Every structure is written in C-alpha cells, then in structure tokens.
Amino acid sequence: MRKRFSVLFFLSGSLVAAQIPVPEAACLIEGATAARDRLWLVCEEGMVLAGSPLRSGWTQIALPVQSTPRDVAFLDDKRGFIVGDRGMILATEDGGNTWRQIEVPTRENLTAVFFRGERGWITGWSGVILHSADGGRSWQLQKTGISHGLEGIYFLDDARGWAVGWVGTILRTTDGGQTWKQVSAPDARWSLHAVYFRDADNGWIVGFGGQILRSRDGGQSWEALASPVTSSLTSVAFDSAGRGWITTVDGFLVSEDGGQSWTHRRLGNWLFLNGTLSVDGSVWAYGARGILRPEGSAFRLDRIEQLVARAS
C-alpha cells in the first residue's frame, strides 16, 4: 500500500491541499518506542522491527493478525503493546518474541497507546478511549461524550491527561479519565494530531495546516502560536536540554525559548516524519524513510531499507 502525506500550499492567495505519494519501502513506520537499549518499530505492513541503529543486530517479527498496526508502547524490556485497526491490541511478555491478541470492548480503529507506570490509555475513532489500571492485562472504555476520532493522548501523571483529535477536538481529565471534559478552543480549526505537557501548566498541541496551540493553565485554554509552515505537524516533544521539537514533512520545527516561538529546520526534501521518541534525553524521530537521530550537531537518517536488510 502506498501512503500519502497531506501538504498545504498557498497558490495565488488560496489554500490548496496536495496529496504527495510516499515512496514504496519495505516498512512504513506507523509507531515507535524505546525500551532499555532497543527500539521497537511497527510497520503498516504488519510486522515489527526490533533493534538499535547503534548496533548491528535487528530482528524482524511477524504479527499474528491481519489488522494494520498504528502504535506501540513498552512498559519495560519485557512487556509491550501494539494497537491498530478494528480494535486490535497485541501484547507481549517476552520482549516481543511472541504476541497475543487481547479482547477489548470495541472494534473501532485504535490510533495511539500511552503508559504512565502501570496505567495505560488508548485512543481511537468515534471518541474511543480505553484504560488499563493493571499494566494492560485488562482494558475498559472511558466515557468521552464525543463521536470524533482521537489521534493523540498524553498523561503527566496518573490523574492529569489530555487527548486530541479530529475537527479541533481537545479533551482534558484531572481524575485519570473517569471523567473527560471537552475544551473549547476557537483557534483549533483543523484536526489535531499530538499533545505534550512539560509540567502541570505548560502544554502544546500540533496538527493539520501547521497548527501550533499552547496552554499555560493546564489545558483549560489554548492560544494559537505563529507557525513557519502550513504543512501537517505530526508530533511534539521536548528534550532534556529544554529544546522543543515538532515533526513535519521535511524536518523539524525547533524552539529554543521554551516553546513560545518556532523556527523551521529543513533536513531533507521529503522525510515524512510521523513522530518522536525519547532516547537517553534526546529526541529522535521516525517516518516513512526511516529513523532520524542526532549525531553531534547534525542528524543522521538510518534508512528503513537498510534496517530491514539487517534484520534476521
């Protein structure tokens, strides 16, 4: 399947959306996470790659179901979860060597998984949020009161969390998701892809059309920040030095002032970055072409074709 990435252009004062085809690859990375000294990459084609660009060995693992995987999270070096289309949740307890399917009370497409200790949350279409309080052994639906699809979720601790999604949807909870409240944000005009909080007050949301939203009051209100691009923004994170990173089609938006202003750092023609992951305090990125990781003052692209070729 050939993926397409939406990009916005301004032509003669009009906003035009273009669908740019992503080149064929052996693995189109949908989600990634770091666990101890290993990376886990889930591919749209229904397989997992496990390894590290800093070492030579990679392992390719086939998944036991046909649904497309969308995201992955590990609690430690043994326990991990993959979520995907048609209500798919796969679990491993042996470091990813084997995976089993978990039955959950939904068949909606699942988009993102997030763990804070033993507590986990999963977002999906039709306003679905699933919650586990026992390390992913069991999952229950949480009431959101919305029908729009959700794309991203983030929890600062066991109580305070935020979820974002289609048509500018923003949800907020202060009790671990027992109750979710929709936040009115007039500046959120298009679909939102990811949310991140540095502390109890300061948070950021990014999405379609170059949207960057910021909150200074724990997500109760949001303001639009100036964005240097109009293409889709797919994830946001901060590194241990306090720099902010937002992924886009050709590199990053970077903030050196605590997330108030952002500059465009082009790293290539079309990298199609889907998300970020934290590795030893640094921000790495992944996308259709592979893994982008810091190397000195620059970035190195480990191409996905090379990673697949090195997998046993």
Structure, described:
The protein is mostly beta strands and 312 residues long. The protein has a domain at 29-142: Kelch-type beta propeller (Neuraminidase, 6 Propeller). The protein contains 1 helix and 30 strands. The chain has one helix spanning 304-309, and strands spanning 4-11, 14-21, 29-35, 38-43, 47-51, 58-62, 69-74, 80-84, 88-92, 100-101, 110-116, 119-124, 129-132, 140-142, 150-155, 161-165, 170-173, 181-182, 192-197, 203-207, 212-215, 223-224, 235-238, 244-248, 251-255, 263-266, 273-279, 282-287, 290-295, 298-303. The strands form 8 sheets. Strands 3-4-5-6 form a 4-stranded antiparallel β-sheet. A 4-stranded antiparallel β-sheet has the order 7-8-9-10, with no helix packed on it. Strands 11-12-13-14 form a 4-stranded antiparallel β-sheet, with no helix packed on it. The longest helix has 6 residues, at 304-309. The chain starts with a strand and ends with a helix.
